[in-house]
UniProtKB/TrEMBL annotation:
The chain crosses the membrane at residues 6-23. Keywords: Membrane, Transmembrane, Transmembrane helix. The lineage of its organism: Bacteria, Pseudomonadati, Verrucomicrobiota, Verrucomicrobiia, Verrucomicrobiales. InterPro entries: Metal_resist (IPR025961). The keyword Transmembrane applies. This is Periplasmic heavy metal sensor.
Length: 157
């Protein structure tokens, strides 16, 4: 029973991460000259935390540098999820292949979460202590819980 619950939890986590990545990419316009126009997801960081222009420039550059890594991780998670679904649909029990796919899926989630946390902490380090504390308060729930069910939409806060 614990194994089944773990598989369900992993599937839910995968769906949450995939939805997050798809919505994040969907919200990014492809045009615009201003850095902020290209990254509306950073608007709340600048306004709510009252970043200086220099701080925002550094935060935005970190974000730009991290984006391809995030997109790649989302792609890998999506592929792993598809593999699990295919194996689960075509099989009639727990097979070594399905077990291996689930383990790979979990490993990718772990790597993604570690990478995301590293990015978050690097971003927070660019801020003063008060800004950093507020930033971490807002962002860590998303990195620690991929379902985002209790914290609402980051862009609406």
């Amino acid at each position: 029973m614990k194994t089944k619950a773990l598989y369900v939890l992993m599937a839910i986590l995968a769906a949450g991460v995939l939805a997050f990545c798809l919505m994040r990419n969907h919200r990014m316009p492809s045009r615009g000259d201003a850095l902020l126009d290209k990254m509306p997801e950073l608007g709340w960081v600048r306004s709510e935390l009252k970043l200086t222009d220099e701080q925002f420039k550094k935060v935005a550059q970190l974000h730009v540098d991290y984006r391809p890594e995030c997109v790649e991780m989302c792609h890998r998670i999506s592929q792993a999820h598809e593999q699990i679904e295919e194996l689960a649909k075509t099989g009639r029990g727990m097979t070594p292949e399905l077990d291996a796919a689930l383990r790979e899926h979990a490993a990718i989630h772990l790597e993604c979460q570690q990478t995301m946390l590293g990015h978050i902490y690097r971003t927070a380090a660019l801020m003063d202590p008060r800004q950093s504390e507020r930033y971490l308060e807002k962002v860590l729930p998303y990195a620690l819980d991929f379902t985002h069910s209790e914290t609402g939409n980051l862009h609406e806060r």
